[in-house]
Design a protein that fits this description.
This protein has about 300 residues and is an alpha+beta fold. The chain has helices at about 100-105, 110-120, 130-150, 155-170, 190-205, 215-220, 225-235, 240-255, 260-270, 275-285, 290-295; strands at about 10-15, 20-30, 45-50, 55-60, 65, 70-75, 80-85, 90-100, 125. It has a six-stranded antiparallel sheet. Helix 3 (about 130-150) runs antiparallel to helix 4 and helix 8 crosses helix 11. The N and C termini lie far apart (about 45 Å).
């Protein structure tokens, strides 16, 4: 029998143990086409996205994935992603964001195993009904424990969450999503849209190179004028702005997560000069790179 996920609209709860070395945030909610994000974003934590109802489109590093009910997306920190909800098709989803500092510092072997799960190039997972029932059992037990709010609730939820991660890790090689990847129901019916998604994915993986309208049109065998027009229609961005947004997001990641000098970040993110980088960064991020690092740096 198909197991139902316990759900409370807009419900959120947090767990924090060992002075924040292990923290979890649970977020239940319905999302609509009207509130689609304009561009990809990232988080400094790991993320599990679980689609509870409906169908939607998920972009990871510019690559498009079509999600169905009970599909998972597993994301490592700072991985650019975006969800597109279709018109007149609201979706319920559960998002769990967490850190793994506790595992990294004290259980290195467990950390390496779990990190491998979130580092997989293809981040979308689809499991059998039986496997889903086992996973949903953990979600529901955590949900119930969070509602009880006893003195041991946090410990119980943490234990259940670790079991959930272990179950996902054990099941990763039985991922059924890509067995159906060529199914017509999972692909856009528009060939030019599919090509544009391939180009966005290419941009996310080659942003440090000299990307131009002419070079991309040549690589993907499409006229510059047609590419420019179709790219804007499909993504809502001009090609140049999309490249700039991608580069700036990478620069923001490096500013927050590394001690790299800004001059080195400029080179690694594909900008031609300090003045160009500063101008584009301030235009898109709203402040200078140094101020962004100072105000948002993780402790």
């Amino acid at each position: 029998m198909k197991q139902t996920v316990l759900y409370d609209e807009g419900y959120e709860y947090n767990i924090s143990l060992d002075d924040g070395d292990f923290s979890i945030h649970f977020d239940y909610g319905t999302r609509y086409n009207q509130i689609n994000m304009q561009f990809s974003h990232f988080h400094p934590n790991y993320e599990i996205y679980f689609l509870l109802s409906g169908q939607c489109q998920h972009f990871v590093e510019g690559q498009s994935f079509n999600l169905d009910t009970y599909d998972f997306v597993l994301l490592k920190p700072f991985r650019l992603h975006q969800t597109n909800y279709f018109e007149y098709q609201p979706c319920k989803r559960l998002i769990i964001q967490f850190n793994m500092d506790f595992f990294k510092r004290r259980l290195s072997e467990a950390f390496e195993s779990l990190e491998a799960l979130f580092n997989m190039e293809e981040p979308v997972f689809r499991f059998s009904q039986h496997q889903n029932s086992q996973l949903i059992h953990y979600f529901n037990q955590m949900y119930k424990a969070s509602k009880q709010k006893t003195s041991t609730s946090d410990l119980l939820i943490t234990g259940l969450f670790i079991q959930l991660l272990d179950q996902l890790s054990n099941q990763r090689n039985t991922n059924d999503y890509f067995h159906h990847k060529q199914d017509e129901s999972l692909l856009s019916g528009n060939p030019i849209e599919n090509k544009i998604y391939k180009i966005t994915s290419y941009i996310h993986h080659h942003y440090a190179e000299n990307l131009t309208l002419e070079s991309l049109s040549s690589n993907f065998y499409i006229s510059p004028h047609y590419l420019s027009r179709q790219f804007k229609l499909t993504t809502g961005f001009t090609l140049i702005l999309y490249i700039q947004e991608t580069r700036i997001k990478r620069a923001q990641e490096l500013l927050l997560d590394t001690d790299m000098k800004i001059i080195d970040i400029i080179d690694q993110c594909g900008f031609g000069s300090i003045s160009q980088f500063n101008r584009v960064f301030k235009n898109l991020a709203g402040c200078s790179p140094s101020k962004y690092r100072k105000n948002n740096r993780l402790s």
